[in-house]
Amino acid sequence: MTVSDGAAAGTVEAALAGLGLTLPEVVPPLASYQPAVRTGRYVYTSGQLPMVDGKLPVTGKVGAEVTPEKAKDLARTCALNALAAVKSVTGDLERIARVVKVTGFVASAADFTGQPAVVNGASELLGQVLGDKGVHARSAVGVAVLPLDAPVEVEILVELTED
After folding, report:
1. Which SS3 state, helix, strand or coil, does residue 161 take?
2. 15, 128 contact by CB (below 8 A)
3. Residue 75, exposed/middle/buried by CB under 10 A (0-12, 13-18, 19+)?
4. What whole-number distance in Å separates Cα of residue 159 and Cα of residue 142?
C-alpha cells in the first residue's frame, strides 16, 4: 500500500476529500447489534454492507450477476461505511493509531476464486486515507450469500491512540 498525497498532507477526512469522497452517515443496523463497539483502545465494527443513501446499489453473486471490478468498488464503499462507524464511537478519525485487521466476505458464484482482489477495494482505500496506519492483517472469505443479497461485506478492527 502506498501513502496518498492526502494522507501525507493531513487529516483522514482531508484524504477522503482528496479522493472525491465524504464520510457517509452511519448505516443503521439491520438487526439487533451496534455498527461499532469500543473496548479499551480498540474499535470493532460490525460487518458493513456497501450501502449508499440507505440502499444497496447492486445485489447478487460476484462472478455471476456482479463483476469482480464492481465488487472491488463495493468493498471500497464498505470500508468507507466502516470508517463512519468508527467515527460514530470515537468522534474523530484522527484517533486511529492503526487498522489492525480487515475481514471481507464475498458472496461468490460457485467457481469464483478472486475474493482477495475484491477485498483489495477496502484495503486500498484504508491505505490511501490512513497511510501506514492503514496497513493491516486481512482475511478474504467467499460465502454463499450475504444479508440483503449484498455482494460484499467488510468489517474492520482499529486500534486507537492513547486518550
Report:
1. coil
2. yes
3. buried
4. 26
What is the model's pTM? 0.93
**Nearest Cα to Cα of residue 122 among 158, 85, 153:** 153
Residues in the chain: 163
What's the mean pLDDT in 151-157? 98
Identify the residue with better confidence: 27 or 48: 48
16 grid coordinates: 477522503
Residue-by-residue DSSP string for 86-133: HHHHHS-GGGEEEEEEEEEEEEB-TT---HHHHHHHHHHHHHHHHGGG
Q: Tens digits of per-residue pLDDT, 52-105?
A: 999 999 999 999 999 999 999 999 999 999 999 999 999 999 999 999 999 999
Question: Cell numbers 460490525 label which residue?
Answer: 46
Q: What is the dihedral of CA 144, 149, 150, 154, to 10 degrees?
A: -50
Mean pLDDT of 44-51: 98
Alpha carbons 70 and 72: distance in angstroms, whole number: 5
